[in-house]
């Protein structure tokens, strides 16, 4: 069985270690754990890992956050996968830093990356994991905050939580979305 795991973020050094790139950071950690190396391919950096007889195709779109849908559509088609084998990881200002929430469907909550995926795929029924980055910013400064570098405290919290994020991805591929949501959405 094969799954497409998508971490959202923006390409380039200017965006490394920013809150908006938390999806990239999770996939980098998962790949590192398996000694997998991302390669620059069409629309994304791509690698594969194996977990309990499953193949997890990891992609980090190179199309910039707001155009992530093109990369997701291309790789779903290339890998011949349905939406239920897709899992998207991205940041969410509505959740406290480090907290995760897994959903099967719903709105984009103002997130342009997942919104573009919905638009391109024509559905909002996309399994996803939102990772909280908090909302410690003054009114009107959300973009600066989201695209800002993580603080040392946030990096430490991310490192404390990374195993949980990776476990949730692996759980999705082995026990399915419903059971994964029941376990991790506590």
What are the SSEs and their pairings?
Layout: E1 2-7, H1 22-33, E2 39-41, E3 44-51, E4 54-61, H2 68-79, E5 86-92, E6 100-103, H3 112-121, E7 128-132, H4 142-146, H5 152-175, H6 177-184
Parallel strand pairs: 1-4, 1-5, 5-7
Antiparallel strand pairs: 2-3, 3-4, 6-7
Helix pairs in contact: 2-3, 5-6
Q: In order across it, which strands form the biggest sheet?
A: 2-3-4-1-5-7-6
**In the CATH hierarchy, what is the class?**
Alpha Beta
Number of separate domains: 1
Largest sheet: 7 strands, mixed
Number of strands: 7
Class by alpha and beta content: alpha/beta
Q: Give the N-to-C terminal Cα separation.
A: 28 Å
CATH fold node name: Rossmann fold
CATH superfamily: Peptidyl-tRNA hydrolase
CATH architecture level-2 label: 3-Layer(aba) Sandwich
Q: Please tell me how large the radius of gyration is.
A: 15 Å
Helix content: 25-40%
Strand content: 15-25%
Order of helices and strands: EHEEEHEEHEHHH
**Unreliable runs:** none
| Shape verdict | globular
Question: What's the pLDDT, averaged over the residues?
Answer: 96
- Compute the number of helices: 6
